[in-house]
Amino acid sequence: MGVTGDTVEAIRLKLDIADVVSDYVPNLQRSGKNLKGLCPFHNEKTPSFIVSPERQTFHCFGCGEGGDAFSFVMKAENLTFPEAIEKLAAKTGVPLVQTEKKDRNYEEKMGLKAILDFASSFYHSQLLLSSAADPARRYLANRKVSKESLERFQLGFVPDSSVFLEEARKKGFSEARLLAAGVAVKINGRLRPSFFGRILFPIRDSKGGVVGFGGRVLNSEIQPKYLNSAESLLFSKSRILYGVFEGLSSIRSNREIILMEGYLDVLMAHQYGIESAVAPLGTAITSEHAKTIKRYGAKTVIAFDPDSAGRTAALRSAEILLPEDIDVRVAVLPQDKDPDEILIEKGAAAFKTLLDKALDPAAFKTEILLSGEKGPLSSSKKSEVAHEVFALISKTSDEVLRSDWLRSLSQRLQISEDSLRMEFKKEADKKFRFRRPYESSDRKGDLKTSPAKVEASPFERQVLCLMMKNPSLASIAEETHFRSPDAKATWQALLTVEPHVPGWPARLLENAGPAKPLASELLMIADSMEGEDPQQELNRIFTRRRLEERLRELEGRIHSQQEGELHPDLRLEYQKVLCELKGSR
Ligand SMILES: [Zn+2]
Q1: Could you give the CA distance from residue 194 to residue 81 in angstroms, rounded to a whole number?
Q2: Cβ < 5 A residues, ion ligand 1
């Protein structure tokens, strides 16, 4: 949906970034005129995440993320700009004035939502109250699902009767819309409720709206055991994770995701206080899931069933998560116990211990490949295992991880570390040779941009910081003063802002384009700089710069001339410049 610029400005005026951020960063502490806390976007133990209420911006000195309240919410909640506007409009009470161009699918989505909400609450009350749901209630009681979990996840039951369809018609939902929403099916020309005879798990998006259902049979002889809603405008299996909405606050505060296999696993984990548990919707983890997990900045522990299918799926999931630079581990559960059995029989503490002892993916894969091996390993087995594990190690671009994993592998296989590393390099080179040029440059772009990689010289940084104390000073500088593209872009953005208009820092970041990390970092540094009149300071710096350049020029000329031919004026000027330079310190 389109929103007018005035609306955005109205929201900006009413918004307090400290207020917005504190919903996500629980213990923001005052630090001078700023606020400091643990960054929600990367893992850290000491706070490097700064919020400036004065400038209404944030910046993390750990991962380089920065921006205004809008970009914070977009990043934290994985929203598009219009979605963030919608959310912050609600928070500030600013009415949304929409431009005429609405989301083409908007009406259709709203219609779908209405039906899904209705179906979800109808089936939930069926599970709680109807006698047809007796077997379902018994089944859930046998699986030790508590009343609270049943409520929290709004489980439902679909009786094999026309009662739902009658109610839906009374609400005015047409047959066509019920079919389109996937809550009804036509069997032999007769309309019937979808998922009949099944326990219904409503699937929510991260904002809590029901977007689809998963249905589980009561009698495991009926196939398939689980049935999911078909893909729709709202429902995408490759993106949504079950339990994310319910676990959002735990995921944020612990920065951790426990990845499980199914709906019931997630529900039981939550029931036992492990609320960062989520699961894909009966499908394998996709790279889109990985991107979602990455946005939560969460380390991930995979806790799948310990059978061979579960272990293979765990490994495949790890391989999908690794290229996103997600800190992923795989829990090794006892052979004969599924996660819910461990929780029920041994309790949450025992389960958490297993999570804590989770292995890195390379070690996990090694153990799987070596399981069943007794006695000393043959050389050919060692080589086979090493090459299998190489394939996994090459999925991460983190050199430190690679190095650690190779070391552990060499110890486990009792191969010399040097020869293992050589072998790994040989294989990596082979792959590289077959890679097309554009792929190798993609790879480079994949590397995470840590603040250390933001290139700007100390001179550029100092000058830009001073200008950020008063952007009208930006005109003192010239383009030739900036060598690094990011510094130049930041300076050009400074030239575009009007310092007397409130909210200029947000506009500066917008206009900085790809140089936003640098601009946001320098804004924060400038903010904490004390004293010094920025104009005087800038004049001093530029004067000094000019003198240094002149001195270098004179030195060059002096060196290129023979001793006897040295012009006295040159020598004199050199002395003078040197003197001035010393005085300007
Ligand atoms: Zn950070």
Answers
A1: 35
A2: 39, 41-42, 60, 62-63
252 C-alpha to ligand 1 centroid (Å): 13
How many angstroms does the Cα of residue 407 sit away from the middle of ligand 1? Answer: 29
- In this structure, what DSSP letter does residue 360 have? P
Cα of 284 vs centre of ligand 1, distance in Å, is 29
Report whether 365 contacts 389 (CB < 8 A). yes
Convert the pLDDT of each residue in 214-266 to its tens digit: 999 998 788 888 889 988 888 988 889 999 999 988 998 888 999 999 999 99
- What is the distance between the alpha carbons of residues 38 and 255, in angstroms, rounded to a whole number? 10
Q: Residue type for 334, please?
A: P
Residue linked to tokens 């040779």: 433
CATH number of 5-92: 3.90.580.10
Query: What are the C-alpha distances in Å from 138 to residues 200, 437, 443?
Result: 15, 60, 53
Q: What is the pLDDT of residue 127?
A: 97
CA of 151 from ligand 1 middle (Å) equals 36
Axis-axis angle for helices 106-129, 163-170 (nearest 10): 130
Instruction: Look at the chain and count its residues.
Output: 585
Strands 66-68 and 184-187: unpaired
Q: Please check whether the two domains, 5-92 and 106-228, share a CATH topology.
A: no
What is the CA(230)–ligand 1 centre distance, in A? 37
pLDDT tens by residue, 131-177: 999 999 999 999 999 999 999 999 999 998 889 999 999 999 999 99
Considering only 53-67, 114-128, 364-378, 421-435, which range has the smallest mean pLDDT?
421-435
Regarding the domain delimited by 244-358, which CATH topology (the fold level of the hierarchy) does it fall under?
Dna Topoisomerase Vi A Subunit; Chain: A, domain 2 (3.40.1360)
Q: State how far the alpha carbon of 308 is from the alpha carbons of 311, 338, 385, 409, 433, in Å.
A: 5, 12, 18, 22, 35
For residues 335 and 302, the answer to whether their CB atoms sit within 8 Å is no
Domain ranges of the chain: 5-92, 106-228, 244-358, 365-436, 454-530, 537-583
Phi first, then psi: give them for residue 273, nearest 5 degrees: 85, 5
Predicted confidence (pLDDT) per residue in 405-449, tens digit: 999 999 999 999 999 999 998 887 776 544 333 333 333 333 333
373 phi, psi to nearest 5 deg? -75, 130
Query: What kind of fold does domain 106-228 have according to CATH?
Result: DNA primase DNAg catalytic core, N-terminal domain (3.90.980)
Task: Specify the DSSP class assigned to residue 193.
Answer: E
Look at residues 293, 353, 349 and name the one whose alpha carbon lies nearest to residue 323. Answer: 293
Q: Ligand 1 center to residue 521 CA distance, Å?
A: 11
Q: Between 321 and 565, where is the model more confident? A: 321
Whether the model pTM is above 0.85: no
| Top-confidence residue, 433 or 128 | 128
Ligand 1 mean position, distance from CA 273 (Å): 27
Rounded to the nearest angstrom, the distance between the alpha carbon of 47 and the centre of ligand 1 is 9
Instruction: Retrieve residue 443's tokens.
Output: 């790879």
Q: Tell me how far the alpha carbon of residue 528 lies from the centroid of ligand 1, in angstroms.
A: 19
Centre of ligand 1 from the C-alpha of residue 48, in Å = 7
The pair of three-digit structure tokens given for residue 467, joined into one six-digit string: 């200008």
